[in-house]
Write a structure and sequence with these properties.
This protein has twelve helices and no strands. 57% of the residues lie in helices and 0% in strands. The protein is mainly α. The protein has two domains: 140 residues, Hypothetical protein af1432 (Orthogonal Bundle); 97 residues, no CATH class.
């Protein structure tokens, strides 16, 4: 199902002064966290860089849709704040794995409320930012949210995936020299792939983090994110940067992997061909009961 948005009716955006204050707050908040060793410092720096890159990606997608400056600034704000919980998560638990700590999106929203970071914004803008941050890592889009929330949520989810693909593909190319178990979610690097992951992806569904048993499962899950992209520009960026091919190259050459890669590749190229920048693709996975939503802890 393709969902059409009227970009002239997605509500007000954010003024320049408000965005500047959020950026100032974010910089100050991140500055509270200092690594006790090189590994901690590198992981915290990686998350800060990820935030900066997601802001760049969301701006690219927003401009492709013809959003005005206030709307682009609001998109920038949700990207800026979406992973603010990652710093406290890593300091407290020593991991980025939500399954071994807590849901980083929920933690991010709680920090924004606790710190009063959004106190100067209008109530509806505060609510939108909190909702988008809270749901950005859910396996599926939440039911019962208004069109404006879903629009910005889809923008953020696409931008987040695009930069996570950058992070992991760069890492996989050098991982034989330098392992980072935090980035691998502490999964064992074994040659096998799990049946549940394979079945979901071959059916065009987003794989569940709870089904991951190996690092190869995680790589396949990342390849399957293409089924959840929402905007034409996102598909084209993923295609041009060859993210699927790069992940395929670090997976075993077995039939299940070949089938999943081909399905994902065909889907991506079809979406590049039949979508326009003004018409984001609807969620290809049927929305289930919200109680069944589960965190994608890798985001």
């Amino acid at each position: 199902m393709t969902v059409q948005y009227d970009i002239n009716e997605i509500g007000p955006g954010l003024d320049a002064q408000a965005l500047l204050k959020l950026k100032t707050w974010f910089a100050g908040y991140c500055g509270r966290f200092a690594g006790c060793d090189d590994a901690v410092t590198a992981n915290l720096a990686m998350k800060k860089e990820h935030t900066e890159k997601v802001c760049m990606e969301i701006g690219e997608i927003a401009r492709s849709l013809g959003l005005n400056e206030p709307e682009c600034r609001l998109a920038d704000a949700v990207a800026l704040l979406h992973d603010v919980g990652r710093f406290e998560q890593y300091e407290r638990y020593g991991t980025f794995a939500d399954s071994k700590s807590e849901n980083h999106a929920t933690l991010s929203a709680r920090i924004l409320n606790r710190e009063g970071a959004l106190a100067d914004l209008a109530w509806d803008t505060r609510k939108l930012i909190i909702d988008v941050v809270s749901f950005h890592n859910c396996a599926e889009l939440p039911a019962g949210r208004d069109e404006r929330c879903i629009f910005y949520l889809k923008l953020l989810r696409d931008a987040d995936k695009l930069d996570i693909w950058r992070v992991v593909t760069e890492y996989y190319q050098r991982s034989e020299r330098t392992r980072n178990t935090s980035l691998e979610l502490d999964l064992p690097d074994q040659p096998r792939v799990s049946l549940a992951i394979v079945e979901d992806l071959l059916a065009g569904r987003i794989a569940r983090t709870g089904d991951m048993e190996t690092l190869n499962d995680f790589k396949l899950l990342q390849m399957g994110w293409v089924f959840d992209l929402g905007f034409c520009r996102s598909f084209r960026i993923a295609r041009d940067r060859r993210y699927l091919e790069k992940i395929r190259n670090v997976l075993p050459d077995i039939e299940q992997v070949r089938q999943i890669y081909e399905k994902a590749r065909v889907y991506m190229y079809a979406r590049c061909a039949d979508m326009t920048d003004a018409a984001p693709q609807g969620n290809p996975v049927p929305v289930r009961d919200p109680a069944l939503l589960e965190s994608e802890s890798s985001r």
